[in-house]
Every structure is written in structure tokens, then in C-alpha cells.
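Reopening: C-alpha cells for the 4-O-methyl-beta-D-glucopyranuronic acid complex, inputs below.
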Amino acid sequence: MENYAKLWLNYSEKKNNKDCSALKQFVFSGAFTSDKIIENAKKELLLGIKGMLRIEPEIAVEGTAVDPSGLKRELTSGSKIADSEEYSISINNESINISSGSSTGILYGVFNILRTIACEKDVKKEFESGKTFRPSNPLRMLNHWDNMDGSIERGYSGKSFFYVNNEIVIDERTVFYARLIASVGINAVVINNVNVKQAASYMITDRYFEKLAELGEIFAGYGIGLYLSLNYASTIEIGGMDSADPLNEGVKAWWKEKMAEVFAKIPTLKGFLVKADSEGRPGPFTYGRTQADGANMLADIAKEYGAIIIWRCFVYNCRQDWRDKKTDRARAGYDNFMPMDGDYHDNVILQIKNGPMDFQIREPISPLFGGLKATNQMLEVQIAQEYTGQQIDVCYLIPMFKEILGFKTYAKDTDDTVADIISGKTFNSRFSGIAAVTNTGNDFNWTGNYLAGANLFGFGRLAFDTGLESAEIAEEFIRMTISSDDSVVNTIKEILLPSRAVYEKYTCPLGIGWMVTPATHYGCSVDGYEYDRWGTYHRADHLGIGVDRTDKGTGYALQYNEPNASIYNSPEKCPDELVLFFHHLPYTHVLHSGKTVIQHIYDVHFEGYDEAVKLAQKWDTLKGRVDDGIFENVSERFKRQLFNAKEWCDQVNSYFYRKSGIEDEKGREIF
Ligand code: GCW
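Re-run output (same inputs, fresh job):
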């Protein structure tokens, strides 16, 4: 018995799929070379069909040419990556044909068919007239914040399954993980924390080459590229030099030699992710250089090996003074990265968090999307639920990601959305895509809360096909992972779909954010960050609350393209859900909803708690109708969620009642 759940790859028997006659013969065709990926695709298909339909299919492989993508590390453009991963499924005379220009495309076709069967859809009907699938985003990436001592920064599902005691572990679970994420379309993984310290700094030395090469081969067999987070100050920390100045010739020479060694020893390695000048990490600022200087220096050297440098934009002053009302952390990304738009070399991608602060349950979209016009860009979201319930509270994040992707940036005169920019469409970019800080660990169920698996599944599905709806994705996850009983599926959907809105209600009103327990980021602490150095303030007093980010305040609202800038700059036009992010308003200010700010705060907190109770009650109805282990896991989490929601509700309401002295119109109990 494995020590991990098989989640959506459990391939349990599907009794409802009666007409399986078309599912005995498969043909893989197209311009690919038969390689490890094809071997894995065949294995997967056999395993899945045998498990779900109890028949043994025949598989013919008719590859015709050299695979242009796949395993080889070539500097191909983003659009080429997506083109080569495209695949088609059709049915001719009782045989199912999967065709693609790459073996990875064939593998995706196999997973599509298996998903169709697992969801008990009629395969014949689905593919009768032939269908073609092309990934929306060239790079669909997971970022692990796993440390080599086995801990995970912001991990809520046990320990790392990559590392124990500073050693890399490769076992059955590793291979299963590659299958699991490939099955939802992930094609890139960063396996170590962006805060590269201690042993992790030595990943690019012969201490770890052998294991990394092995790991890279496993991933490559599923079309997944291996990436490492890099310590920007490696020249100092492992090279024994006294500088990491990107323009220093000695520093460049060190990296040249280092990269030659690293790429020779880890042939499947595709590039690096770098967190520099951020939260105490070293970077080019130390030497009076720009972020572009740092990124370009590494990229120019990596280019020779067909590799890319993904450079994070999470650069801000984390030693702020709360008394200073001019410095605004929200402005920092734009202020630090916009001036060099166009200077970043073509194998650099800037990785931008969805909001200007840090993964709160509600933030505006980073104005770098729409600001940057001549730079490769990637969106970073977080499925690790750092600020969104820590996989204790249920919080299905796909509806939030849909909003982010659908945001109109006005990057050109058209309706360009974030999705259009990161797909490469708006600027015809060379590389682009989407990354998620992942929520996995070595817990039996991978994600702590069984329902948090929906975020891992959903992130991959959405990254591959931005057009999918949140409800469709939830339904697939439930059917494949938990149950195909219609009433169970509907009940769980009714829990997942509103869960983000519920969490937002009992935690963060009107976009204010940050009223969390410092450091751990779980639980309510209204003033926890108010007098701290992190630039995260609500500025509440007895008259009002919110941060003035308008032209009269920090000016952040003006970083957006029009008409967004004018909308956010005006308290009348700004959408309610973000109004306290952009404005400092009196408690008596009347919102678009017709409520005052203070009444809104009271109402949503009471509602949020009540709705959380209802979600838990819905889950209770599933006793005996889902696997006992799953039932108990989620029930136990719901108990903790309700405790948390009650604390949030009572603390936030009492805090603002005491500050404002304004009674709740409905006379409910406030302390
Ligand atoms: O949200 C903050 C986290 C840090 C994290 C940092 C980042 C990896 O609290 O734990 O560090 O963001 O994104 O770099």
C-alpha cells in the first residue's frame, strides 16, 4: 500500500461507461520520435483503461519525425512551445487517434481521454467529430518553497517529499508526482525555495548533481522541465569571492564556468528562478545596479545552454516606518521594474505576483500587467494557502484566478486581459506563462485538506486552458478524486464554489487585508501588522479606515492605464471590494451597495461566519457517502475553520465597534 493518495489518478472501475467498444484500439500519430514520454503515455493509457474499464487496449505508435520540443533544452519561443504541445483526438472506425507534433502532446491526449472516462462522459460523443487542444500558456509552472532540511516555507501539508536531511529523495512518490502534475498540464517545476540558503546554495555543485540529473530525467519523461531557484550571491557564498556585482568581470567569469558545469551535469535543466533584493536576499541593488543588470548577466550566460532566467518582481522595502505615509509597498513592483521595460534580454521572464502586495484574499491586479510592454512576463499566484486559510479553511481559489486572468489591462487600445499578456498574445512575447507557489507536501493526501487538492488540480487545468469555468474544473476534480455520485458531486461543488467569497467575508472587508497574525499568517490580529516594518497598514482611527493610494495619497492608483487609473482614483467609481485598498474613508461613507462602510464590515463578518457554518453542515451530510478517510479529514478541518471564522468575526467587529462607537443597525452581539 502506498503512503500517498492517488487523487485524480486512482483509475477506479467506472461501471457507468457501458459502451466501451471504441476504447480498445488507440493510435498515436504525428511528427514525434518515440521516446520516454511515449513509453510513459502507453503505460498510463494501459493502466487507466484497465483500471477503469477492465479491458486491455491495443496501442499503435506511428511517430514520424524528430521531436522539436520535449526533452531537448533549446531556446525555442513560447509560441513554439505551445504549438508543439498541441494535440488532436479523433475517432475513426472504432479506433481512437491521438496526434501531435510532440510526444508531450500525445501524453496530454492520453490524459484527456482518461479524464473523459473518469468523469464518465461518453468518449465517442466527445471526440466523434475530432477536437484539437492547444495550451493557453507556454509555461505552466509550479514553484516549490521546499527547503533541503525537509521543511517547507508556507507549507501546510507536512514536509517536503523532495528532501530529507539535506539529501534529495527519489522514490515511487516522485514518479507519481510527475504523473499527477503532468496529467493536468503542468510542464515546468522549480523544486527549491526561492529563499536559497544553506544546503540549497550547493544545489549547483557536485554535492547534488547526480540526484538532480536523475530527478530531471523523471520529470522530462512526463514533459516537465526542471528549474532551480538560484542564490544570487553564489559567487560569495559558494565561490569564495567578495562580490556579486553583475557588471564585475570576475563575477561573470565565475558564472560562465559554473553554468558550463551545471548544464553539463544536469542535461535536462531548463533554467533558474531568482529572488533578488527581496526580504533580505542579496541582489544587484547592493552594487548600485538595476534588476535588469542582474537578470541580464545570468541570462546571457544561460542562453548558451538554451536556458531561461525567471526573475521575480517581489522587490520592496521591508524596513519601512509605519509613521511614513508616503512610502507605499504597493507601488514598489512598478517603481522598481517599469523603468527598464525593454532592457531585459529575451531569455529573461519577469515573474509578477497577481497583486501589488502579497497574495491577500483580495487585491487589485499588479499594474505591471499592462505597464510592461516590451518585457516577457509571467503571472505568479499562490495555491499554498498562506493568507487564505492554510489548508485548514476551505478556499477554492480558481474563481479568484479567473478574475485575475480576466482583468482588462488596457495594455494596448484593445481589451487585452492578463490572460492575453501571459499567453504571449498581446505582445507576441518570446516567453510567458503562469506559475503557482504550490500547496503540496508529504501528507497522505498531498495537500493537507483533501479539498485543497482542487486548487492543485484546478491550477493546472486553468493554466492549460484559461477558458475553462471554475464550476467545470471543480466538477472534474470531484468526479475523478472523490465520487461520481451526482448528489455528492453537487454537494461538494456547493462547498467549493462559494468558499473564496465566504473566506473573504469573515476576514478581509473591502480590500483592506493584512489583519492577520504576524509571521504565521493564520488567524485574526487586527493591529498585528499596523505598527510593523512591512508596509502593510489599514490606518484605522475613530473616524475611518483605509489607505489613500490616490493622487492625493501615495499615487499608486495612477500606475494603472486608463480607464483603470481614474476608476481606482475615485472613491465614487472604485468597486466596493477594493475601496479601502485605494481610499481612506469615514465609517459613514455610503458604498455602491447602499450600506455604510461600518455596516458592511459588521454584515459581512456575521454572514461570513454563518455561511462557513452552512458549508460545514453540507459536508456533514456526506458521512457514509464518501470515503471515511476523506470525510474525517475534511470534517476535522471544518471544526478548526469554524473556530477561526468565529474569532475573525468577533474580533474584527468588536475592534471597529470600539474604534467607531457606531452601533450595528441589526443589534447583533458585538463585544
Ligand atoms: O509572502 C511572503 C512569504 C514568504 C515568501 C515571500 C516570497 C518565500 O511570507 O515566506 O518567501 O512572500 O514570495 O518570496
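The longest strand covers residues 25-30. The two ends are 51 Å apart (CA to CA). Marking as resolved unless the reporter disagrees.
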